[in-house]
User: Which sequence fits this backbone?
């Protein structure tokens, strides 16, 4: 399972989906994320909690370490898949998914790793990625 930033943030902010997210982590044999998702989660957490981005990064990294979530590299294959994803689903195409750059790279990272994508929200339901949606 690849964790999108939205799922990391929902868990760390103890949003209503957090218990389901934690349970799903236990059920999966492989749980991963990417540096881009870590960046997104760290900056969002810092904004919501009103502390520095460095503190947000520390909190996210501590969570990943405690949960034994591996960080995947973003390589050229992921970049190519992200471009293909953007051509189909980016908000500039006016597709209902309206994915942003971070979403395209989450999609690409999950697809390249052959894993389902864990996410929160309505965006990825409009794509062809296999995933697990938490909340809305």
Assistant:
């Amino acid at each position: 399972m690849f964790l999108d930033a939205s799922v990391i943030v929902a868990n760390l902010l103890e949003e209503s989906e957090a218990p389901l997210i934690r349970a799903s982590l236990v059920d999966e044999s492989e749980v991963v994320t990417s540096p881009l998702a870590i960046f997104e989660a760290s900056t969002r957490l810092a904004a919501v909690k009103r502390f520095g981005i460095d503190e947000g990064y520390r909190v996210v990294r501590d969570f990943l370490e405690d949960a034994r979530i591996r960080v995947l590299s973003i390589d050229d294959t992921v970049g190519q898949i992200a471009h293909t994803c953007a051509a189909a689903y980016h908000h500039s195409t006016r597709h209902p998914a309206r994915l942003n750059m971070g979403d395209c790279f989450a999609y690409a990272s999950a697809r390249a790793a052959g894993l389902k994508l864990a996410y929160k929200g309505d965006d990825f339901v409009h794509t062809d990625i296999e995933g697990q949606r938490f909340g809305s």
